[in-house]
Amino acid sequence: MAIQVGDAIPQSTLKTMGPEGPMDISTSEIFAGKKVLLFAVPGAFTPGCSITHMPGYVVNADKIKAAGVDTIACMAVNDVFVMDAWGKAQNADEILMLADGMGEFTGALDLELDGSAFGLGTRSQRFALIADDGVVTHINVESGPGVDVSSAETMMALL
Question: Which reaction does it catalyse (predicted)?
Fold first, then answer.
């Protein structure tokens, strides 16, 4: 069963780009003692993710943080180099770019997407969640293509 409101964020290790290169970052480091808005995309540099989903969070990052969010994070089942390059291409300086290269965290959330028909393999469903001290307070998973319930604007209304 997919993660739900009231559930704790599962323990996992993701990758992010640090000052000296790729580094591990645990879900505990990301979520413990913080209010986090995590949004996930099926793939970096894909059209819906690059044209619609990410830009909403980039443009509204200051407003989201002013509403009490400590960390805005973007995750995809891509490698850390791709996530870093995509973050730079999107001017996502205020967003923690997280690589779930093997899809382990996505699997622990039970939010996998079978993108085999498009040559993508297993990816993450498009979703956004808000967690307070590692406990999910809101989660919105897109039921089909497009960006609606996981958009920055929709999530901001929940803060």
Answer: a hydroperoxide + 2 glutathione = an alcohol + glutathione disulfide + H2O
Position 134 in a domain: yes
Indicate whether 83 belongs to any domain.
yes
* Best CA proximity match to 14, nearest among 60, 78, 94, 71: 78
Considering the domain boundaries, does residue 37 fall inside one?
Answer: yes
- Among 14, 38, 49, 74, the one annotated catalytic: 49
- Which H or E element spans position 114? strand 112-114
The CATH number of residue 136's host domain is 3.40.30.10
Q: pLDDT tens digit string along 34-91?
A: 999 999 999 899 888 888 899 999 999 999 999 999 999 999 999 999 999 999 999 9
Report the number of distinct structural domains present in the chain. Answer: 1
Asked whether the beta carbons of 147 and 52 are under 8 A apart, the reply is yes
Asked whether residue 51 is domain-assigned, the answer is: yes
* Residue % of the chain over a pLDDT of 70: 100
- By 3-state DSSP, what share of the chain in percent is helix, strand and coil, each rounded to 5? 30, 30, 40
74 is catalytic: no
